[in-house]
Amino acid sequence: MQFNRIALAALTMMIAGPACAQDGEMADVEIRTEQLAPGVAVLFGRGGNIGVSYGEDGTVLIDDQFAPLTGRIQSAIAGLGADPVRFLINTHWHGDHTGGNENFGEAGAVIMAHENVRVRMAANGRDGRVVPQAALPVVTYHDGVKLHLNGDTVHAIHLHNGHTDGDSVIWWENANVAHMGDLYFNRISLPYIDRDSGGSAQGMAAAIDRVLAITDDETRIIPGHGPMATRADLIGYRNMLLTINEQVQAAIDAGNSLEEIQAMNIAAPYEVEGGFISAEQYIGFVHDSLTDPNAMAHDHADHGPDHDDGDDHH
Ligand SMILES: [Zn+2]
Ligand SMILES: [Zn+2]
Question: In CATH, which of 1.20.1250.20, 3.20.20.70, 3.30.70.1060, 3.60.15.10 is domain 18-245?
Answer without folding.
Answer: 3.60.15.10
